[in-house]
Amino acid sequence: MKPLTIETFSALVRTGSVHRVFLTPYPAIDGGGWFLDVDHSDNGQTRQLHTKRGGVRVFKSADAAINALRTCGYSGQVVVVVKPEGD
Description:
By secondary structure, the protein is an alpha/beta fold.
């Protein structure tokens, strides 16, 4: 599977392929952070938004993640996950 980049996410938004986005805590870094888990219909792409270098894109704040969604033109449902599965 190919990593889902911000450019690919924007293209999926334009084609109506994004169903919803999960804003999920990323506790693996000091101070925490947030990542975006995207429910979309492109089976060739991962669900997590990645950087161009391939790692999961971690936002320092929920506001920063939401601003990235707006920049891509996404206006659909965002589900905030307070506690990830397994915790």
